[in-house]
């Protein structure tokens, strides 16, 4: 369920007769909680849209693609012109609106919804917008969100998505590449994989990862799960490390180039839960600011170049015994610890289907150059003994399994 979070960035409240302005941190917490549940795909504007992208155009696109609009109503929300615009657009598009109130009395909430022309909507009042109360918040919201999504589908006459998520199975199918390297097809959600040393992130050519809030992208997922939380704030470890790796490079980088970062260090979810050690960021998307869009690289030679770059970076990392992060960082210390034990080298990697999804490339066309790139390079990196290909949809899994079987027969 795609949930558009509508909110006022700064809240207004009265304290002892004085108007106080404060940042609306609840919106970020709400997004984080929803994103932890795989049945929801939340989106919110954090005022950091890609340079050159028109704000109104992106908001329109996101609302149009959403199943429900969740409007976060706190002190002074009704005074926001942008909140009013988003609500008007959602209403015009037939999108269901779910009001969620916080830090308001019942009387104040009634006044806010009236001012926002939402008096006819049933609202939810909560005290559970906190990281430690996520499950309780979901219990409060689930019914209203589900009802709203069904109402939207009925109004808009939407069809069910044609792509069906495959069940989560890290080894849904197995093959063998030259040199005895195992090739596995990992179906379902890439966030569910465990014990794969290196995860490949198809990134734009400016090496600017997607925002935490764009949970429908691999880049956002890795950035969020690779971050650490200190004193309630995110430490954006992976993007910071990626910037360090590119400190002497101009941007944009060349198509297919790859750069390595850690998986966020020992404190990140990627390291603790997924047991990942590295992210290989490949320039697989061209950002075109003047046209407010990105263009995925999906020609066979570009895909093969991306695969070769991944394997070359793996070779370089293993030549350095797995030590490559910035000095004096927790992730570097962990890499040096493993190297001292003789366990620093990376043995496994998972690749995406470059250019599919929003890129629009056919899976059958993409998998062929991926396999050719692997056949040409796996023997050059003898330390790597397992390679995975991520197949989110069942349709992708079926096609990839067939194409790989034919090529490696």
Number of helices, where a helix is a run of at least 4 consecutive DSSP H or I residues: 12
Mean pLDDT, rounded to whole units?
A: 87
Cα end-to-end separation: 40 Å
Order of helices and strands: EEEHEHEHEHEHEEEHEEHEHEEHHEHEH
CATH superfamily of the largest domain: Leucine Aminopeptidase, subunit E, domain 1
Give Rg in angstroms: 23 Å
Beta percentage is 15-25%
CATH class of the largest domain: Alpha Beta
Instruction: Report on the biggest sheet.
Output: 8 strands, mixed
Q: What's the structural domain tally?
A: 2
Bin the helical content.
25-40%
Tell me, briefly, the overall form.
globular
Oligomer: single chain
Number of strands: 17
Instruction: Kindly name the structural category.
Output: alpha/beta
CATH architecture of the largest domain: 3-Layer(aba) Sandwich
Low-confidence stretches: 47-53
Region (Disordered): 150-171
Protein name: O-acetyl-ADP-ribose deacetylase (Regulator of RNase III)
Domain Macro: 170-408
């Amino acid at each position: 369920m795609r949930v558009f979070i509508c909110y006022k960035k700064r809240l207004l409240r009265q304290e002892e007769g004085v108007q106080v302005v404060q940042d609306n941190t609840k919106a970020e917490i709400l997004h984080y909680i929803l994103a932890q549940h795989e049945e929801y795909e939340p989106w919110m504007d954090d005022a950091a849209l890609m340079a050159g992208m028109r704000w109104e155009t992106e908001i329109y696109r996101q609302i149009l693609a959403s199943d429900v609009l969740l409007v976060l109503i706190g002190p002074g929300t009704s005074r926001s012109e942008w909140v009013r615009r988003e609500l008007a657009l959602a209403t015009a598009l037939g999108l269901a609106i779910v009001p969620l109130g916080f830090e308001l009395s019942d009387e104040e909430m009634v006044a806010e919804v009236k001012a926002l022309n939402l008096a006819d909507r049933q609202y939810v009042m909560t005290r559970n917008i906190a990281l430690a109360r996520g499950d309780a918040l979901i219990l409060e919201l689930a019914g209203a969100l589900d009802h709203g999504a069904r109402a939207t589908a009925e109004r808009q006459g939407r069809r069910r998505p044609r792509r069906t998520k495959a069940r989560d199975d890290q080894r849904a199918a197995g093959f063998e590449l030259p040199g005895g390297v195992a090739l596995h097809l990992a179906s379902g959600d890439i966030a569910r994989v465990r014990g794969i040393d290196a995860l490949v992130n198809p990134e734009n050519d400016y090496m600017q990862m997607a925002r935490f809030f764009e949970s429908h992208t691999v880049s956002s997922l890795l950035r969020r799960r690779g971050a650490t939380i200190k004193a309630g704030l995110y430490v954006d470890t992976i993007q910071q490390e990626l910037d360090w790796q590119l400190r002497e490079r101009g941007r944009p980088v060349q198509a297919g180039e790859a750069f390595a970062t850690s998986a966020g260090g020992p404190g990140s979810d990627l390291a603790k839960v997924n047991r990942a050690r590295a992210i290989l960021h490949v320039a697989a998307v061209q950002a075109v600011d003047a046209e407010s869009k990105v263009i995925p690289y999906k020609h066979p030679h570009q895909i093969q170049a991306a695969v070769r770059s991944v394997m070359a970076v793996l070779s370089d990392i293993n030549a350095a015994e797995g030590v490559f992060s910035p000095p004096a960082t927790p992730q570097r210390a962990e890499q040096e610890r493993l190297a001292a034990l003789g366990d620093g080298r990376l043995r496994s990697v998972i690749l995406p289907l470059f250019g599919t999804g929003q890129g629009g490339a056919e899976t059958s066309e993409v998998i062929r150059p991926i396999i050719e790139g692997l056949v040409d390079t796996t023997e050059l990196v003898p330390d790597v003994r397992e390679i995975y290909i991520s197949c989110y949809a069942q349709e992708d899994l079926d096609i990839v399994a067939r194409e790989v079987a034919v090529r490696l027969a």
